[in-house]
């Protein structure tokens, strides 16, 4: 394994770092002020549009998609350190058109969409003109098992009729959200992994109701996490992505790369938290000495560096594998980083909060926001327990000498 960045990747890393230093970090406070100055928490602040325009001008656009037709065509290994830089702040991913859930939705449409679907929805997403949402999780079932999804999708002539409830549908409340990718059951009698389909549902379709915005530890993000009610929602049957029954397969393809993105951003957040912790420990004194002289604080700092270096290597190995053998053949590594990254980041962020005292739980630093989102990441894209189950199942079979299982 060789994790040395290509010259092209190094160039993008340097250019993105310059963009962060010159434009993104200085805009953080203004972004917060503009969001808070809106009539609702769900606004598109003017500063974001300025950052997006500047990112495009600098060629820092759609960095996530490994297709040179729609961006630089970076590999996952090349993109990984860029995602880490973006993870240091809440606004960089959107500024470069690399924010979830749009990245996953664009990958789905790019890989599985028809020409018409790509023209209507993918291109505006790639251009940053609209936003999107992904509706899979449901309030009435344990959605960590995607086969539990209950939303009904019944064929009626040339249309599908959707009925059911969804929640934690990220992106719906953004003012520019125009379309959802919705997962539901088109054939309850089919094989358990062939019952589900994914369907494009324009947000203004009659019968689709936004019930409420769900806060994350009290935070209402600008893009929102919505509960939705679908009541006799009719969409053309041609809005099915790929084919009926392919929903589970598409979900697996969608979540693999996204987990690498999430994990690298988690490392970026943890790196910034460590920097803040060190600066605060040097700047404050207790009982006549800088906090940084205390042995327990030095232990925290040392452990953070050790754990971050180990985690980064594991994530880079996973990206390297996905580039070479595909996400399907790197499932264990993808599962491992999805467990490790938010847990390591949470530990470091929590200790940084502790060193900051009351300031750490306020909005004077990004630490409280980081903690809320990292804690949520232990549930998003599959909870820790599901990923551990996959890893343990594979390890048991390997130790027994059994054949490779289907996970």
TrEMBL record:
Any one GO molecular-function label of the UniProt entry: flavin adenine dinucleotide binding
Location of the Acyl-CoA dehydrogenase/oxidase N-terminal domain: 7-129
Key word Nucleotide-binding present: no
Residue ranges of domain Acyl-CoA dehydrogenase/oxidase C-terminal in the record: 245-394
EC number(s) on file: 1.3.8.7
Cofactor(s) needed: FAD
Subunit note: Homodimer.
Family: Belongs to the acyl-CoA dehydrogenase family.
Stated name of the protein: Acyl-CoA dehydrogenase
């Amino acid at each position: 394994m060789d994790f040395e960045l290509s010259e092209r990747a190094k160039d993008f890393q340097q250019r993105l770092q310059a963009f962060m230093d010159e434009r993104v970090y200085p805009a953080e406070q203004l972004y917060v002020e503009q969001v808070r100055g809106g009539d609702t928490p769900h606004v598109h602040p003017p500063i974001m549009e300025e950052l997006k325009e500047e990112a495009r001008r600098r060629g820092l656009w759609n960095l996530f998609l490994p297709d040179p037709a729609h961006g630089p065509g970076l590999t996952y290994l090349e993109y990984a350190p860029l995602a880490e830089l973006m993870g240091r702040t809440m606004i960089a991913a959107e500024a470069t058109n690399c924010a979830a859930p749009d990245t996953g939705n664009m990958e789905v449409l790019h890989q599985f969409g028809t020409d018409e679907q790509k023209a209507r929805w993918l291109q505006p997403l790639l251009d940053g003109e609209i936003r999107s949402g992904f509706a899979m999780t449901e309030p009435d079932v344990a959605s960590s098992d995607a086969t539990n999804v209950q939303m009904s999708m019944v064929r009626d002539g040339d249309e599908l009729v959707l009925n059911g409830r969804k929640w934690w549908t990220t992106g719906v409340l953004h003012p520019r959200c125009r379309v959802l990718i919705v997962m539901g059951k088109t054939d309850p009698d089919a094989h358990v992994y062939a019952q589900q389909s994914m369907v494009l549902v324009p947000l203004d379709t009659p019968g689709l109701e936004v019930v409420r915005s769900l806060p994350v530890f009290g935070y209402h993000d600008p893009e929102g996490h919505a509960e939705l009610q679908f009541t006799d929602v009719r969409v053309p049957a041609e809005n099915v992505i790929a084919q009926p029954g392919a929903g589970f397969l598409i979900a697996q393809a969608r979540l693999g790369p996204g987990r690498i993105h999430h994990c690298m951003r988690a490392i970026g957040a943890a790196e910034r938290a460590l920097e803040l912790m060190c600066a605060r420990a040097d700047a404050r004194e207790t009982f006549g000495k800088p906090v940084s002289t205390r042995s327990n604080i030095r232990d925290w700092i040392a452990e953070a560096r050790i754990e971050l270096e180990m985690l980064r290597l594991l994530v880079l190995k996973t990206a390297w594998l996905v580039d070479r053998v595909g996400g399907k053949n790197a499932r264990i590594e993808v599962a491992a980083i999805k467990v490790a990254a938010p847990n390591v980041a949470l530990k470091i962020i929590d200790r940084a909060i502790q060193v900051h005292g009351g300031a750490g739980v306020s909005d004077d630093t990004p630490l409280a926001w980081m903690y809320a989102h990292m804690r949520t990441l232990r549930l998003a894209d599959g909870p820790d327990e599901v990923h551990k189950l996959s890893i343990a199942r594979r390890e048991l079979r390997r130790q027994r000498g059994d054949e490779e299982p289907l996970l």
